[in-house]
Write a structure and sequence with these properties.
The structure holds 3 protein chains of 3 kinds. By secondary structure, chain A is α/β, with parallel strands linked by helices. Helix content of chain A is 23%, strand content 35%. Chain A has one domain (2-476). In chain A, strands 5, 6, 8, 10, 11, 13, 15, 16, 18, 20 and 22 form an 11-stranded mixed β-sheet that branches. In chain A, strands 4-3-7-9-12-14-17-19-21-23 form a 10-stranded mixed β-sheet. Chain A has a two-stranded antiparallel sheet with strand order 1-2. In chain A, α6 (154-160) packs across α7 (162-168). The longest helix of chain A is centred in the first third of the chain and has 15 residues, at 49-63. Chain A starts with a helix and ends in a 5-residue tail after the last helix. In chain A, 60% of the residues are buried. Mean pLDDT of chain A is 87; it is low at 1-13. In chain B, α6 runs parallel beside α7. In chain B, strands 6-9-10-3-11-12 form a 6-stranded mixed β-sheet, with helices on both faces. Chain B has one domain (2-235): P-loop containing nucleotide triphosphate hydrolases (Rossmann fold). By secondary structure, chain B is of the alpha/beta class. The model of chain B has no long low-confidence stretch (mean pLDDT 89). The longest helix of chain B is centred in the C-terminal third of the chain and has 28 residues, at 230-257. Chain C is an alpha/beta fold. Chain C folds into 2 domains: 3-280, no CATH class; 385-445, no CATH class. In chain C, the strands form 2 sheets. In chain C, strands 1, 4, 5, 7, 8, 10, 12, 14, 16, 18 and 20 form an 11-stranded mixed β-sheet that branches. In chain C, strands 3-2-6-9-11-13-15-17-19-21 form a 10-stranded mixed β-sheet, with helices on one face. The radius of gyration of chain C is 21 Å and the shape is globular. The N and C termini of chain C lie far apart (49 Å). Residues 438-445 of chain C have low confidence and may be disordered. Chains in contact: A-B, A-C. Chain A binds chain B through residues 1-4, 427-430, 432-441, 443, 447-448, 450-455, and chain B through 48-51, 71-73, 75-77, 81-82, 84, 87-93, 97-98, 101-102, 105-106, 109, 141, 158, 162. β22 of chain A pairs antiparallel with β20 of chain C.
Chain lengths: 481, 258, 445
Amino acid sequence: MGSSANEIDHLVKREYKEGFVTDIESETLPPGLSEDVVRIISTKKNEPEFMQDWRLSAYRNWLKMREPKWASVHYSAIDYQAISYFSAPKQQAGPQSLDEVDPKLLETYEKLGIPLEEQKVLAGVAVDAVFDSVSVKTTFTDKLAEAGVIFCSISEALQMHPELVRQYLGSVVPAGDNFYAALNSAVFSDGSFVYVPKGVRCPMELSTYFRINAMNTGQFERTLIIADEGSYVSYLEGCTAPMRDENQLHAAVVELIAMKDAEIKYSTVQNWYPGDEEGRGGIYNFVTKRGVCRGSNAKISWTQVETGSAITWKYPSVLLEGDNSVGEFYSVALTNNRQQADTGTKMVHIGNNTSSTIVSKGISAGHGQNAYRGLVKVLKGADRARNYSQCDSLLMGDRCGAHTFPYLEVKNPTAQVEHEATTSKIGEDQLYYCRQRGLSEEDAVSMIVNGFCKQVFRELPMEFAVEAQKLLDVSLEGAVG
Amino acid sequence: MLSIKNLHADVDNKSILKGVDLEVKAGEVHAIMGPNGSGKSTLANVLAGREGYQITQGEVTYNGHDLLDLSVEDRAREGIFLAFQYPVEIPGVSNLYLLKAAVNSIRKYRGLDEMPAVEFMKLIRDKAKLVDMKPEFLQRSVNEGFSGGEKKRNEILQMAVLEPALAVLDETDSGLDIDALKIVAGGVNALRHEERAIIVVTHYQRLLDYVVPDYVHVLADGRVIRTGDKSLALELERHGYTEMSEAAASAIEARAVS
Amino acid sequence: MNDTVRAYLDAHSGAAAGLPGGAIPWVRQVREQGLARFSEVGFPTTRDEDWKYTSLRAIEKHRFIPAPDRPSGLTSGDLTALDIPGLDAHRCVFVNGRFAPALSSLDRLPAGLTVTGLADALNERADELEPQLGRLTPHNPNGLIALNSAFLADGAYVRVARGCAVDRPLELVYLVHANGQALALHPRSLIIVEPGAEAVILERYISTGDGDRYLNNTTTEILVMESARVDYYKLQDESPKAYHFGGLFVHQDSDTVVSTNNIAVGGSLARTDLAVSFNAPGAHSTLNGLYIGTGRQHLDNHTQVDHRFPECVSDEFYKGILDVRARGVFHGRIVVHQDAQRTEAQQQNKNLLLSRQAEVDTKPQLEIYADDVKCSHGATVGQLDANAVFYLRSRAVAESIARSLLTYAFANDVINRFALAPIRQQLEQHLAAKLLPADQGEVGM
């Protein structure tokens, strides 16, 4: 397609502005994984005994498991003994006031646009900032406590509310669920914990900002959110990492539990370092996210904008146990240069009158490979289940790939399950039309791509939607063809 | 303002325009008529700079500069507007957003600051009235799910907002019922201006009852075979294109012999 | 290697020497490669992504015996009952995988059409088959296809000469006459349609006894050369206890127009693996399919379309109706390879579940490595529209009739895509017979 291809081509010079390194003294375990390492992590965190036992059993399970190979992603073997499983900036552990936090850390978050001083923060958003293996600061905890909402790091929760953690941890994603979940269960260091009590509508958006800083470390965070009967919470997570030539592993587990009449809205803007144009470096983002609608009329909604990471492997899922429960998955995944994404969802219909909606928008540019993989499963006893899935892919350039792998398994004749997918390249007619109205090619591409993702963006909280839109533009720079 | 000399253009190595000559001055309204396949839409798209057309001979100057050298967007920023025969749908992008992006890129090109939001909204509201467009249309995705008439009105709205120096209307009348045609024509007439030229490309003379042209050109087989005033359009209506093409062909033949 | 695999290998070593063309090196090689592959991979298991929903444990449990190489004793009168009404065709019959000239009617073949047994062809003109036989199957076939190659002996050899438009359909009847024996058969067919030729070809898989449990493991290779047109049908109506596995490999050269119409109604566990490969630009392929399962039938259809060259069009439409405890599986894969620009590919799979115990697993897939493409797919699983049933009942139509009418209506749009009229009538009758007394459905209650 001649000149337009070339013009679009030069639009894709990507700059990763979150790629800086914070020079901070850290305490880092030497690389390697063993029962001792698992014990050290647990001891460092002064965990209750049940936790250490749980970790060790997960580790023993993991030893017997193999890395999954079914996703359409390719990478050279990961040496799990070359990774350090714990790294924390040297400072006093435990909750603290802002003046006790190392100024370098505050500066880092400031630079990332996440100020931790409460007066500077976006109104109505509480932040838990996780730096490498530990949570450095959680804001607005007092204000949330007034409403009865617990929002803290999971390490803190293990100290303050061990009974809640014990009850729910691993109840949605068991320790032996899959290879990466087992690894996470053994070595997870920190993450966020949320408990919203009965009937409470969480007064502010909760958010966690994950930052990988140290070299050769993996990040294994664990997030657990429980929305008790009739409650509501909206939770956002963002992630970035420095630019490095080596790949780094991020294997998180997120568990959501929505009781009767409760609703959890979970949004992710994932911008881990994607590697350079040649595919050197970047994060391996192997994540297990799953929610359960435990009671009737519960609702869980996942929204994700995935623009970063060298490899993304994640399938935020919903187990629809309660009658009339609702699961939603809205996703934008963009792969440019040598990025690979294999992402989608699982909707498991168990109760009666359950419904699920899946909207997935994939954008492939450069040599990027982008796969939607989703399972809709209707069990025998799930009467009148409804699912609608829409998966669209946009291709920019003749060396990228877009793949759609839905699995529909229906064992109940009252179900209505519908999947639709389209794949096409960015519309030449649309580009011409916009340019005839005076827009540059970059602006035209950005406008069309953002329009393509609109259905997903509108599910994001306002501040994040704007952020996501900008992120998409940056990620596409130099990528169009 | 616009000067087309001996313009030849190919599409996929097939010759479509075979020597078009046309002079358009500011303040004039020109109608270009012709049968299907005569090259009308090609001419409109060549002026707008669409890719896929090879200019094999001839030149086009616009305000004294070579137009063919400019990219699509720079032509738009220089004041050329094409009202599309088939306006394109852009899902997820609101009309308002497109207009704002267009207005501001043109302003930037001309060294102006972005238009303040309040001023912009007022401008859009005023112009929307011109084509009888309800405000809620502005929030909808560009042309998505619009009827044929709504799409064409949207084109005129964009034209009114962007205030081009040279507007090319490609079959803007096609597929319109009489009421929609009147609205569109009213919009076009409101934009007639001594500093603005308008080229109306059409198959039928119907639109010309409402937008009265200063000149009518008949395009056939890639050439302008006759030029006249608005009475030429009426003549065409009576005799059809075939007769006129034949007459023109023998005239050309006669010229060739002499 | 497990015992089951060992048993097949033993059976092979006993039979190998006597197989047709055994002295020809390339034929031997095709068999040996098949055997080597089978002994390496064995039967597919549900751990294999392509066999996730179809378990072969049932056939691994059985000890099937090789079909005997002797006349069946059937007469053409025995076959009359198996005729498809209204079908006037050149007929070629195979009994237990062996060509049966006496039961065939090939006396009216037009010039340019060759139809014979593969064994005869291997003995008489093997050179003619060498470029294609065993070449159109994948390099790393699954265990069943490999097993077929290992036992490759007889089946159909069809060649339609350049420019020849065959006057009437060619009907290839693969009849199993098991007489209560648990036979294992591996019919192998090769169909070559030369440039500019046109043919309608029907492969039928049927049996004489309704109670026979046997393994029919078939493979057909079809090469459609430049500008040729083929309207192909596969009608699988095996014994209700039979296991049927069919590999069907279609290669299309430039400007060919092919439609494959794949109908599965019989068998206890039946699966077809259809692969269409575009080997040159400008080819067009339509893939129609209909599977109707009842009882405890398990019907699996796997299709793969490889767009290897630019400007090819594929249009796939599969429908399934599952009643009682039947299970349907659809797995459709469309691969648009790098540089296969201006590809158009469409894929639809729709399923109707008629009973509480029926189930369906569907997995449409698009894998796209070129950008100038228009591809879409869709899949649905649902049931009869309760409003429509109510409407018909309010017009005095009995519920069972209302349901069968609507079921037929569901199948109708795919049936209408089968150009061969007698096939449509046959299916209409089948639906009427199987679904009219459909009272077991409790859907919507």
